[in-house]
User: What shape does this take?
Amino acid sequence: MKQKLFAFFAIAALLLGMGACTTEDNPVPDTSISEKLLGKWMISELDGQPCPTNLKAVITFLSPTEAYGSLSDFYSESWNSHASAVVTIDGSKVSLTAKEDEHITHVTNVDISNITETDMWLSSDWKVYEDGKLIGGEVWDNERYERITKDYEKDIIGTWEGKVTSTEDEHTDGELHRWEYKSDGTYVYYSKVDGDWKAGTDYLSDYFVDGTLLCTRWKKTATSEEIREWWEIESIQDGKMKWKALRMPEGKSAFIATFEMTKVK
Assistant: This one.
């Protein structure tokens, strides 16, 4: 499963990862594909099971020929925010092509079996070429995407104060902290020391938001391990922000983590 996830999300990082759940019911009229695809989609299921938040990707179709997407990937160390891809549509078949560099090209051919206003099921065949020679690929046939109607990319900018509200989480200490999200894709993490807020001195502290997906990464020093974490923003309203995430730590039971924050004026 991990090998498949690596292959899938490496391509998703280039906007080419799209899964599928093939169904013979309710085939999509060919003429509706272009219109129904427009907008933002986020993966919700892998092989019929809920997708862990740390494996989610977002793709946005701008037109029948253009798309962009975002993904932070554990296995390939990809960090892609709003990366672009070329789209072609032929009936229910959709092809996405992206250049990783001057030598590597990714191509994914997707066959959409069902699409509604809120959900999309597809099968996909991903291939990777180096200077025209096939060097890898993966086939998927049991996934689902959901349409995302909110985009919190701008709403998150500013300083927020809060803490974990669930009984379990992977990286928090359970104390109150502050996060200052900047428009350049970096953030500052604050802790309270002797009654005053003290900014962290992390070597790396990046984030991006695409739709409702928040991806973060940080390193304490130049040589320390890079840590990554994904959240789904449930809401940002009236100075309040709520996060949730489905965590599936290896060797442990799955759990839902939640955070709540208040914007600092």
